[in-house]
Fold this protein.
Amino acid sequence: MCGIIGYIGDKEANDILIKGLEQLEYRGYDSAGIAIIDNNQIRINKVLGRVQNLKQRKLIGNIGIGHTRWATHGKPSDRNAHPFLDQRNNFVVVHNGIIENYLELKEKLRKEGITFTSDTDSEVIVHLISQNYHGNLKEAVLKTVKELIGSYAFCVIKNDWQELVAARNGSPLVVGLGKDENFLASDVSALVEHTRDVIYVNDFEIVKIKKDQVKIYDFEGNKKDYNIRTIDWDLEQAQKDGYKHFMLKEIFEQPKVVEESIKIKFGLKKEYSRIIIVACGTASYAGLVGKYLIERIARIPVINETASEFRYKDPIINKNDLIIAISQSGETADTLAAIKLAKEKGAKTFGLINVIDSTIAREVDDVVYTRAGPEIGVASTKAFISQLVTLYKLAFYLANKDTESDDQLKRLKPIIIEALSLNESIKKIAEQYYTHSNFLYIGRNLSFPLALEGALKLKEISYIHAEAYPAGELKHGPIALVSEETPTVAICPQDQVYDKTRNNIEEIKARLGKVISIATIGDERIKEISDNIIYIPKVEEIFYPLVITIPLQLLAYHIADLRECDIDKPRNLAKSVTVE
Ligand code: AGP
């Protein structure tokens, strides 16, 4: 999603802004731009495509803002790239979020003689600020936010004004504190190179930043206190360490992540009659594994809800329900809205979140951090495994079996390392299949959410169409897709449904479908019905999802790499989805 960076200080802003935008690239974007004040003139450099392209020009000045855009309103183009100027070139704005009443505002502004230079919703903000300005930039922003409906974090600078002014309602914003310089960003990763001291801006707050001063106000203009937080991860954690892609590096970090996530402790009461898990994408598939685990281990009923559906379906939420949000970024707009709704209805909310102090982490009643560390690749890998480990821990905790389970979980790290040693053999399988256009993924029981996750990984980064089904559903429709051209990834560990899944594989083979089986080492019988086998280490049945995750990620990775896809920044995708 869109990224924002701002700088005010004594240094040249150009390189700081561009570097900051490079740190935000992982969020996904289609165009980028910066604006810098040079002798009371606003200069703009904005381009369609990569941040890299901004380096062809150098702007001069010590106050500036920058943006990476992920198109929502108006196609990706130079014209629709941020920042946006007002008509007199006095104000310039970058915006993240969606202005829902922009058409109405555009109409009003047009009647007042404003000509728009883009097709975006964002441009209305700069014209409103310009109209509302009567000698004080913060006051102009205060007036403007009263006219806006939607979600936003925006930042404005004025040609002859030594200040950045920003406002937040629903999209992330963080201030970085330096010595005689200050920063603003949508994400701490853009700030870590310069400072560890940050202030998280809350919803309905306006922040006024000079090079040696930060002031925060509510939307009524009242001054507010703030806390300075120290962030504890560094840039090195966000480098590739010699791996070709962040995604591969993050896949190989998983043994360490498992070790870290095992350390999580819960303080939650155990009095809930029902649990509802809300999440999106990969996090929701982790949630589905969580359902199987919590129901099986703790015998508490669990409902899984896609957050974007949950928020609009008038859900039944009881006061003694526990609503669990799972999110890597902690900024996903739909998951956040689902949590707000649950709180309104009086339920207890609990977050399994990776990014510390993110919006959802701060919104929920209680939070545990999943400890994956910064995840840069847009396709979630290590965050997923950390969510799984956290859900195992939660299930055992709710069942009062934490101590024995910790011993079992600790034995998993070497097994994950063993699964990673399959990398080269999986690459060979990928070489055989990377030209196919369609894939099926099947699994039963605990392996079904893994089939969903495997298919999502493949489509996200290789752009191959992949469908996932519970293996038992095949003959209710999807088996019609089976042919020599459509390979099936069959997840068939030696668990209680092994024979059932095996039967489904037989059905595929009978229809000449190619099968890549993910099976337990030593399973000789699977050879008769598989074209390729990825043998995973043997573990206690309930832990197979943790092990199966690895080959699914590696298979998707190598297929995408062979297709020369932009693995860390797949087309159309954003790392944190801060708009609904
Ligand atoms: C994962 O590979 C995806 N990029 C996506 O599905 C992601 O899991 C989803 O958008 C939820 O994000 P979150 O965990 O940050 O809330």
Q: What stands out?
A: The CA atoms of residues 255 and 414 lie 7 Å apart. The chain has three domains: 2-234, 239-410, 419-570. The chain has a mean pLDDT of 94. The chain has 17 helices and 25 strands.
